[in-house]
Design goal:
It contains seven helices and five strands, in the order H-H-E-H-E-H-H-H-E-E-E-H. With 208 residues, the protein is an alpha/beta fold. It has a five-stranded mixed sheet, with helices on both faces.
Length: 208
Amino acid sequence: MNDIINKCSQSVLTDEQGAACFAIAERVVNALIKHGLHISFAESCTGGLAAAHIVDVPNASYVLDASFVTYANQAKVKFVNVAEESIAEHGVVSECVALSMAKGAAAAANAEIGVGISGIAGPSGGSPEKPVGTVCFGFYFGGKAEKFDEVYTENFGSGTCKIASLCSCKTGSHGLCRIRRSQRAEVNAIARSSISHPAEKPPHAILS
């Protein structure tokens, strides 16, 4: 039993890492509340853990209405509108599919921000091209002034629980940076609009 406990402890986050994940999630929630934004997730290998980190934070209900755990391929197709052709052509663990998941989650939940996560947590299922620990992330931001999306892939090594936890932390950290970018774009757009279309000055009073 002790051997089992030791092996499990090596695959989960330390207390410090857990505290860091909560701090990141708290900053994400506060930033979303500040800017009046909502977020939704479509998760595969993380099994809902990214959304769970968000709902651990007080007032998370202001920013998250719905999220999706789409573990099976057909669940990705059914709930977040991933094209079967994309899965067949690129593989389910791919940046293309992760981005489709992000866009689909945002659309289904009517959220400005969508996050898609698809990876190989193991212990089996890896390949030389996509070893265990490979995770693809997709981010979609549908701001008023700027709409943009991003994708990237990272390898977190072995340990199913640890991979899931680290992915959720990474998602929060990356998302926080992009929320700030999105809001800078909003501010710049407002500033440009003010310069291009200045408000009319009130007429001067006529003294008699």
